[in-house]
Amino acid sequence: MGLAAAFKPPVVGLDLGSHAVKAVALRKKRGGWTLLAAGEQAMPAGEPATQEQITETAATLLDSLGLTRAHIAAALSGHSVIVKRLALPPMSQAELAEAIPWEAEQYIPFALSDVQLDHQVLDGPVSMPAEALDVLLVAARRDRLNERTAAIAATGRRPVVMDVEAFALANAYEMNYPDRKDGLAALVHIGRSSTLICVLEQGKAAFTRDISLGGGAYLEALERELGLEPVAAQRVLRGQPVTGAEGVSGVLRDVHQQLVLEIRKTLDFYWSSAKPSTLDRMVLSGGACRVEGLDTALSAEFQAPVEQCDPFRRVTRPASIEADGPAYAVAVGLALRRERDR
Q1: What pLDDT was estimated at residue 1?
Q2: 170 pLDDT exceeds 70?
Q3: Is the pLDDT of residue 126 over 50?
Q4: Is the pLDDT of residue 342 over 60?
Q5: Number of other CB atoms surrounding residue 156 within 10 Å
Q6: Where exactly are the structural domains of the chain?
Q7: What is the mean pLDDT of residues 43-65?
Q8: What is the residue-wise DSSP string for 260-284?
Q9: Burial of 208 (0-12, 13-18, 19+ CB in 10 A)
């Protein structure tokens, strides 16, 4: 191995959340993946965070982990990204490249000059006609793409991959659970201000949606209804007991119902354009996935097993590195990316 290869900076998965930044660095070895570093840094109080605050928070975290020369893989989510699965007539790659902008105009509520388009031909899932060309179309707003890239570059690190959060989540799941053969699974990543849902057909992303309800709804309800201090409410959010807090279960149950309803609407919308199928599994991740009773409420609603994702399940993790597993799912998925990836 030459010196250039030996000292090549690692690709770090950087999850720029609304209230915190998470970073994960992995190394691929012959025997699998090894965790080099992982950590989290809270954003300054107040929202939304400014570009300067995002840069400062990310730089502080990367510096604390010793990732001074890191190359960064980050992601976009929410309304800044549109993902659409298309069933197109069979055609050549050249014909497809010409057709994509025309197809995109039908689904994108922005001028094409304002978005960055990408596409990939996939193996058709069960919901696609056998004779169709299965194409995944992604459109990202250029202004949000440029903002995120600039925020990373301002830390002194080099942005090398810009992904979609739903795809990063799916990558982390696929790497850690390669033995899974579920026909239909739903990945549900519950962040502070939103929840990301990624539907997998036979292990491949088939549908994604962000809903504007997340762990913050639990915190607000606990503080408002029970008068809990923010620290105590955070303990409840992490599934930890809080002494002397009466009525917690009832407050949580009310928010569960709201979240379950939004997830139900999302999956019903997916089913409205897909062949009828049964949900085989739901996998939870994100900082709020451990809230007491949520898994039970979801299992009862969808009549499917519900479990928490372990994004380090097939990663060798040194005992010295502490990382709250499910919260790091997106960062792990990003850390799996490489500079040459599309």
Answers
A1: 36
A2: yes
A3: no
A4: no
A5: 13
A6: 3-78+143-179+313-335, 80-142, 209-306
A7: 90
A8: HHHHHHHHHHHHHTS------EEEE
A9: buried
Question: What are the DSSP calls for 81-103, one per residue?
Answer: EEEEEEEE----HHHHHHHHHHH
Higher pLDDT, 111 or 334: 334
Long-range contacts, stretch 7-11, CB < 8 angstroms, 24+ apart: 9/69, 9/70, 9/71, 9/158, 10/36, 10/67, 10/70, 10/71, 11/70, 11/71, 11/72, 11/73, 11/160, 11/161, 11/335, 11/337, 11/338, 11/339
CATH of 80-142, one of 3.40.190.10, 3.30.465.10, 3.30.1490.300, 3.20.20.450: 3.30.1490.300
Tokens of 206: 């088939």
Instruction: Output the six-digit token pair for 231.
Output: 């620290």
What order of strands is seen across the sheet that includes strand 115-121? 81-88, 133-141, 115-121
Instruction: Give the long-range contacts of residues 110-116, CB within 8 A, separation 24 or more.
Output: 110/139, 110/141, 114/141, 114/142, 114/143, 115/82, 115/139, 115/140, 115/141, 115/142, 116/140, 116/141, 116/142, 116/145
Mean pLDDT within 30-50 = 88
Q: Which amino acid is at 85?
A: R
CATH number for the domain running over 3-78+143-179+313-335: 3.30.420.40
Separation of alpha carbons 272 and 280, rounded Å: 18
Q: Region 264-281: what's the mean pLDDT?
A: 89
Q: According to CATH, what is the number of the domain 209-306?
A: 3.30.420.40
**Closest Cα to residue 330, out of 232, 200, 188, 220?**
188
Structural tokens at position 123: 């193996």
Instruction: Tell me: pLDDT of 303 over 50.
Output: yes
Nearest in space to 160 (alpha carbons), one of 2, 332, 3, 14:
14
Q: What 3-state DSSP class applies to 151?
A: helix
Q: What's the pLDDT score for residue 110? A: 85
- What is the rounded average pLDDT for all residues in the chain? 89
Q: Which amino acid is located at 67 in the chain?
A: L
pLDDT the model gives residue 76? 92
